[in-house]
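Crash report, auto-generated. Payload:
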Amino acid sequence: MNKDLPRWATAFVMPVLNLLSAMLVTALVIHLLGESPTESLAILVNSAVVNPEGLSYTLFYASTFIFTGLAVSIAMQAGLFNIGAEGQMYVGGLGLTLVMLGLDSSLPAWMLIPLGILGAALFGALWSFLPGYLQAKRGSHVVVTTIMFNFIASQLMNFVIVKYMIPDGEQNPASRAFAAAAEMPRLNQWFPALGETPLNISLFLAIIALVIYGVVVSRSAWGFKLRATGLNPHAAHYAGIRISKMIIIVMLISGALAGLGSVNSIMGSTHYLSMNFVGGAGFIGIAIALMGRQHPVGIFLSALLFGALTQGGFDLSLEKQNIPPEMVILVQGVIILFCGAMENMYAPAIAKVLKLKK
Amino acid sequence: MQPAVEFRGISKHFGAVKANTDVSFTIAKGSIHGLVGENGAGKSTLMSILYGYYRADGGEILLDGQARRIHNSQEAIALGIGMVHQHFMLVENMTVLDNVMLGSEGGFKLKANRARVEQELREICTRYRLDVDPLATIHDLSVGAQQRVEILKQIYRSANILILDEPTAVLTAQETESLFEILRLFKEQGKTIILITHKLQEILDITDTVTVMRGGRVIGAVPTAGTTKEDLANMMVGRPIENNLPRKPYNPGAPVLQVDGLQLLDDQGVKLLADIGFTLRAGEIVAIAGVSGNGQSELMEILSGMRLPSSGKLDFLGKALPFEGRSDADGLPLKFRDLGIAHVPEDRLRDGVIKAFSVMHNTIFGYQDKLKNKWGLLDFKAIAARCAELMKNFDVRPNNHDLRIGLLSGGNQQKVVIAREVLAQPKLMLVGQPTRGVDIGTIESIHTQLLKLRDEGVAILLVSVELEEVRALADRILVMCGGRITGELKIEEFDTTRIGLLMGGMHKS
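Recovered output after restart:
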């Protein structure tokens, strides 16, 4: 953090400059691939924002990203770098699926959906418990353990899906489809203009989660202790905050939030558990937490941006044959590089400009 | 004769802060020159300019009558300027020899040079009676010896002007005396010494001339002979300083804290604290004197619940402190707070405050659970009111509770911490180094607050390495050395020499 700059500069000017830098690098790559950067940008913007159906997809992706972004952010508040949102969301999907496979024929939607949400949160939390516990009690670094748990989750899910979930006679590594009662209500029921879209009420759940996060972190006594632990563990200990308990609890919450990301992906869209359904949403959560500076508004805006990139990038690779689908990953990588690793690159320059003005 | 150093109209500002304004004075060759002033008076900035860390915005520096531009510390060293920092710049696991050679290895063939440098160091040590073995490893050396290594390093680099920044802050009285002997020897050899210190007695003891700075300006440059501590203090603060603060007669009440047979072992089984036993009563200040690192910090950590003792009986108001059956101290300080034990930690920035939090957030730190409304949310209206009152009572400046506490001066940060702990209305107050890095004016106000607390019947345990402070506050004095209490004195028996001996572990009287 640069201490000399006013808040508006660190919260607004710097992220925008970092983002522009990332776009510049991307434009260069697109140029080298033999396509026009401006045309590509036009396609991307049109497909992600201007076109209502595209916009609804952007919001759909963002709903998941808000949850994974929140998961990473809340852990960061306590000074913990949870790299494991990917695995936690994956296992969260298993929790949700177990509820559905067991109960979707016997319960109505108003009971089934909350139970599914609960299952996702519970299993996500379960998957982050051990890393949290090991960090709190044994000092095993949460970065290392959560990375490992991503791999374990991946293998575990392969095993569970292939061994137990593929219905007889099917080849596709996925569970059976859930009953209609398990589907999250879609927004195009009320807004037909959105067209054919998976956008569902998960978006509202995500926004509610953002508000709760914001209030808890900055206004509650617990959030105060959470931030104190993250900013200065020595002082937190001095103040009598139980640090190991704090670490375990915040990791549980982080895992639960990541697990909730699966609600949108599965109950809102596919309606069955498939292999690798997470598709990097957990890692994008890291980028969102860094770019959004763990602030609820920042997380929301970053999630929208990454939602738009996912949607627009997909269409871009369809329209421009020289641009591969992996382009999206490159863009994400460049954004993480500029907004995360080189976050303060422009700080000295901004400080200079401000000084000149004085 | 040309002066060794002459500052002519040096000015330096950082943003809106004027650290140095038109600073001019001279330092005679072969003299010991004292530089005093409160924190933020501009001493460090000026020395940093001399040593090439900063460049002045205006003015010039003359060395031996010649105007010099010093762009970095290499150039300063080449011009014969050496600096001994308050925090030693030594690699702990290397030998004295290697530390001296670091940065001036003198070519590719290390081995041949080493023998030559070793010989040279031995000669310097004899000449200046430095008593350092060039082949000893730094972490085996005492603090005083490490400081001699720093000095040795400067002489080896042929420094003629030696800047010492608060050199005695970490030394015992005896070590200080031997440092001064070395400095006098330097002077005889024609070297020039600039001594930055806030201990006015030292200025009187050893310097020839003294410059007082305040608010970035030179307030006075006078020969030491003919000035007094009071004169200097007045110049530093800009108003008379009360040395004997008012206090009620000593009339201790019931025992508040009783410690018996307290032991603390580290992971290797080394005794950090051994056989600590004392009683602290209501309405008295017991000061623990000693060189830092002799178990005081550990004792305070145990008494505040931050650390578990290995064994021993600790009673607070007649009841055992809740150490029983715990495997770690996680969360324990909160229990101690609830019992009525407040703690002003000695390492303020590490333990006492969260730098990135505002002043207001820091005023509730440790007490946040008592300021919740029924929703579990912090009651910021009540907190702001509480904070405003606290900042007014303790004169925290600037009076803006939204400011990050990291931006406040050390003295004002400390006021916030003390105010916060006083507000909890404790029965026992643990105070570690309350005035470390705090300027004279603020020291006076902190001392006044602590004495007021004592007069109100609070038991205060004070840890301080400053004997001046011990003398100003204590009713009784315990001296610690090597994790043991080596002696106890009443304030009437205060005797610097005796305390110094006890601090050094010589406790036969």
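Post-recovery validation: The mean pLDDT of chain B is 89.
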